[in-house]
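2024-03-11 09:14:02 DEBUG pipeline.ingest accepted 1 chain
2024-03-11 09:14:02 DEBUG pipeline.ingest length=789
2024-03-11 09:14:03 DEBUG pipeline.predict start
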Amino acid sequence: MRNLKSLCLAGAAGLAFASAATAQSVAPGAPGDVPTWSSAAKTGAGASYEAYVDGQYRDGGPTGAVSKVWFSIADGVLTETMYGLIHEAQIKALRFAVVTPEGLALEGTDTTERTEYLHTDAEGRPLSPAYRVTTRDKAGRFEIQKLIFTDPDHNALVLRVTITALSGEVTPYLLLEPHIANTGVDDHGAVTTQAFHAWEGDTHLVLRPSEAFTAASVGFVGASDGLTDLKDGKLDWTYASTGETAGNTMMTGALPSLRMGQSVKRDFVIGFGDSEASAEGAADGAFATGLDEVLARFNGEGDRMGWEDYVASLSELPRIAQQATDGGKLAYASALMLKVQEDRTHAGALIASLSNPWGDTVDASKSSTGYKAVWPRDFYQVAMALAALGDKATPMAAFNYLPQVQVGPNTPGNTGVGGWFLQKTHVDGELEWVAVQLDQTAMPIMLGYRLWKMGWLSDAQMTERYNAMLKPAADFLVDGGKVGLLWNDAEIKPPFTQQERWEEQQGYSPSTTAAVVTGLTVAAEMARASGDTAGAMRYQAAADRYASKIEDRMFTTNGDFGDGRYYIRITQNETPNDKAPIGGANGQIAPAEDRVVDGGFLELVRYGVRKADDPHILATLPVYDDQSLEDLYRVRYDFGPEGDKTPGWRRYGVDGYGEDHVTGANYGVGGEMSPGQRGRVWPFFTGERGHYELARVSVNGTPSAADIAAIRQTYVRGMERFANDGLMLAEQVWDGVGDPTAHDYALGQNTDSATPLAWTHAEYLKLLRSLADGKVWDRYDPVESRYAR
C-alpha cells in the first residue's frame, strides 16, 4: 500500500468564492475569443501508476485510491490536462507571463525550453513520468523551473515552481486557462489570492498556491483576461468572478517582483472533482500529505508502490534495452509512455496519443477527443509492445476491453451486420468514427492468438473468447455484409476494405490484406483448438484465396516509376495495370493508382505472408526508396551527414495530412483542406524497415551478430534520433520541404501533428524485442509456414 496519511485539512470547508465575487467586480467581455487547444508537440506526458484489481481499476488495491489525472507539456509549459476519462481535458494551458523593463515576455513564446525526467536510474533511464521543465527567457532576463507530477492518491496535479531574475527586475504572473468539460466555452470562474476555482456543470477545478498571490483576476480571453491587461506592464484589473456569464476564461495570479539574482519559490496544486468541495479537498489533500511525499509515492520510492514498481515488473525491458544505442533511455521512456496513455476507468483502453493534432488551431468550442481515443490498429501495436516488455496484465486487460468496441446487436443504432471492430471510439465505447477498416478487425484476432500462444490466455479462456468475439470477427473477414451504423450503410466484400490503414481510401491494400490473411489463418488455428472444424476450414480457405491474389490485385507491371514493377498503395479494382485513379484526400489530387507507393507491402513480410526475398518485395524496394522522385510522389527522406544518415519515410506519395508547405498553415485550419498540405516523415516507418531488414537477414537462418549490429546502428539509432528532448516520439517529423520558419521546426524533429504517438513508441520497443530475440516479434508461425515458403 502507499503510505496513506490522515489528512488534516487547514482552513474553512469552502473557499467563499461567492462572497468574494459580490465584494468585487465581475469580468466583462463574455464569452471571449473563440477557444483553441494547445500545441500537440509534447515533450512530456504523465499520470500516476495505478495497479489493477482483478484486471480492473478500482480504489482499494495495492496503490490505494485511483487517480484519474493526466497532463502534457509543450513549449516548456503545462498544456492539456485531463481529469475523469482520458480525453476529458480540463485545462488548456498553465504558463507564466513576466513583466520586464523591456516589456512583457510570455513563457513558451519568448522562452527556450528543456524537458528532463525528474526520477532516473544510475544510467539516466527514466523511472517515472515526473518532469523538470526549464524555460529561459531568450533575452536572458529570467529562468523558470517547474517540477510537474500528479498525486497518485488524489485527483490532483502538482507544480513546484522556482522563478529567478537573471538580469534586471522582473514580475511574474501565473496564467491558467481552463477548458472545463473538454471545451473552452461555458466555463465559469472565481478567484481570490488564496485560490482559483473554475467549473462547468458538475466538473470543477481548484488551484491552490502554497502562498497567497499578491493579486488575482479572472476574465474572458481577449477581452478582460490578465494577459490582455498586462500588455501595458501592469495588472490593473482584479475581477473576482465571471458572474452569471460563462465563456473562454483565463485566471491570473501575481507573484512578488524580483531583483536581479533573486528567486521566488511557489508550489501550486490543482485539484479536480465533481464539486467545488471535492476539488478543494483533492488540492488540500496533496498539501496535507506533503509534496515531497507525494512525489515519492508517484515514483514508488522505497516501500511505496508507484512507477518504479511498474518498471521493475517489465521482465523483458532490461534485456531488450541492451539493443538500444542510447543506453536504454528511450526504451524506458517508451515503456512509461505506453502505460501512461491508458484510461484509468476502462482498464486496457489504450489510446493513440495524449494530444490533439495541430491543437493550437483546432476549435475547442465543441468537445473532441483528437487522438485521445481508441483505434483497434494502434491499440494492437501498443498491446503487442507491452507484451514484448513482459507486461502481462495490460495486454490481457486490453484484450478483455475489446468487446466494448466490437459491433454487435448491443451497439447503439446498429442495423447491419456485426463482428467488425469500430474505427474510432471514446474509451467508454461511445461511437465516433464508423468506417470499416478490415485490418482493425483482423488485429484483435491476432492479439488473441498471441496471448494464447504465450500461455497468458488459457485454452478455456481462448475458446470462450473465440466463440464470443473472435469467431464473429473472422466470419466478417470472410463474408463481409451490409453494415448499418450512423452514416455507414456500405456493403463490405473482403478483402476489399472500405478504408485502409490511413483511413482515406477504399480498395485492395497490401497492408490491410496482410493483416486479414494473418487474422484468418490464426483464427483457423483457434477454431481447430476450439472444436470448430468447419470454421477452421472456412477461414483458412478464405485466407488462401486472398493470399493467392495479392500480386494480381496489387502489383503493377507497367507503373510509371522505376522499371514499372512494384506494389501500389491501393487499387479500387482488381486491375493494377489500368492506371485508374484513386480518390483524392486532404486537398490533394486524385492520382493514378500506380503513382502512389507506400510501405504497406512490408507488412506482408512482417506477418509472414511473403518471404523477405520474394521477388515482388525486392522489386518494390527501389521505388519505395527512390529519392529522385519529385516531392509530391517521393516517400523516402534521409536525415544527417553523408555516411551517417537516418532513413525516414512518408506514409505514401501525394500525402496531404500535414502542414501547408506553401503557406506554413497548420493542417485543415477551419476545417478547410488546402492543396499545399503535405504529410511528412513518420518515424515508425524507420522501425518497420528495421523489422523488414531483420527478416531479410534471417531468410537463410539465424542472423549474425554483424547483421544485428548493422540494423541497430541504422534503424534503432535512427528512431532514437527522432526523439525530442523529453524522449517523446512523434507521428510526423519535419522533412525539409517548405519553409520551416513558419513553425520553427528542425529537420528530423517533431512537427505539431501528434507527439507522443503510442504507435511510434510501440514500434521502437518491438524492434528492440525483435533484435534481442533474433526474429520478428510480430511474425506469426502458422502464416509463415503456410505462405512464406
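2024-03-11 09:14:41 DEBUG pipeline.report Confidence is low (pLDDT under 50) at residues 1-23.
2024-03-11 09:14:41 DEBUG pipeline.predict end
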